[in-house]
Amino acid sequence: NAGVTQTPKFQVLKTGQSMTLQCAQDMNHEYMSWYRQDPGMGLRLIHYSVGAGITDQGEVPNGYNVSRSTTEDFPLRLLSAAPSQTSVYFCASGVGGGKKQFFGPGTRLTVL
Amino acid sequence: DQQVKQNSPSLSVQEGRISILNCDYTNSMFDYFLWYKKYPAEGPTFLISISSIKDKNEDGRFTVFLNKSAKHLSLHIVPSQPGDSAVYFCAAPDYNTDKLIFGTGTRLQVFP
C-alpha cells in the first residue's frame, strides 16, 4: 500500500505559467481533498471531492481547478500561477470528510 | 471566521515534562475532534481523536481531554520526548459541508 502519493515534490514556476499537481491514492477512498499550508494560516482547504465525478470548493478555491475522473486520482491544476500561490500543497484521502484523513508528503511550490 | 482555533503558535517544553496543547472551537455542532502531527517536509499524520460522548481519550503517552461546555480540548503528552517536536493541528469535521476544519497549528519544541 503506497497510501497517498504526490508528484512533484518541488516545483518552481514563473508567474503566468500553468501546471498540474498530481495526487493518487490506493486505499479506495471516496473522499479526496487538497489543502495548502502557509505560515500562521494552518491547513486551508482548496477543493474536495466526495467521489468520482463530484468536486466542490473549499475555503480558498480561486486560481485552482480540480477534476475527479477516477476514484484513485485527484489532480490540482493551477491555471495561471501567481506569487500568492507559493505554498506547500497537501493532498489527502479518507472514507469521508468527517473521518480521519490520510495525507500525502506534499508539494512545495514556488512562484516567481 | 475561524471555527477551530489554536491560540498558541509555539510551545517549548523540557524533555520528560508534560506538554499541553490547547484548541478551542466555536461550532457547538462539532462532535468529533482529531489531532494531527506534522514533521517538517512531511504530510500531517493522524495522532489521536475523541468523540463528544467522551471527555477523555488516551493512547500511550498521548491523552486528549474535551470540555464541551467550554468548547475546549487539549492534548497532553507525558512524558515529552525530543521526537515529539513537531507542529500539532487540531481538527473537527463539519458534517454539513463534509469538510475537515483545521486549526492554525502549534509548534512544539522539546529540548533536552
Notes on the protein architecture:
The complex is a heterodimer of chains A (112) and B (112). Helix content of chain A is 0%, strand content 52%. By secondary structure, chain A is mainly β. In chain A, a hairpin with a 7-residue loop joins strand 9 (87-94) and strand 10. The model of chain A has no long low-confidence stretch (mean pLDDT 94). Chain B is built from no helices and 11 strands. Chain B is globular. The A-B interface holds A 4, 31, 33, 35, 40-45, 48, 50, 58, 90, 92, 94, 96-106 and B 6, 9, 32, 34, 36, 41-46, 49, 89, 93-95, 97-100, 102-105.
Topology:
The complex is a heterodimer of chains A (112) and B (112).
Chain A: E1 4-7, E2 10-13, E3 19-25, E4 31-38, E5 42-51, E6 54-57, E7 64-66, E8 76-78, E9 87-94, E10 102-103, E11 107-111
Chain B: E1 4-5, E2 10-14, E3 19-25, E4 32-38, E5 45-51, E6 56-59, E7 62-67, E8 72-77, E9 86-94, E10 99-102, E11 106-111
Parallel strand pairs in B: 2-11
Antiparallel strand pairs in B: 1-3, 3-8, 4-5, 4-9, 6-7, 7-8, 9-10, 9-11
What's the helix count of chain A?
Answer: 0
Task: State mean pLDDT of chain A (0 to 100 scale).
Answer: 94
Helix-and-strand structural type of chain A? mainly beta
Query: What's the Cα radius of gyration of chain B?
Result: 13 Å
Could you provide a short overview of the structure?
The complex is a heterodimer of chains A (112) and B (112). Chain A contains no helices and eleven strands. Chain A has strands at residues 4-7, 10-13, 19-25, 31-38, 42-51, 54-57, 64-66, 76-78, 87-94, 102-103, 107-111.
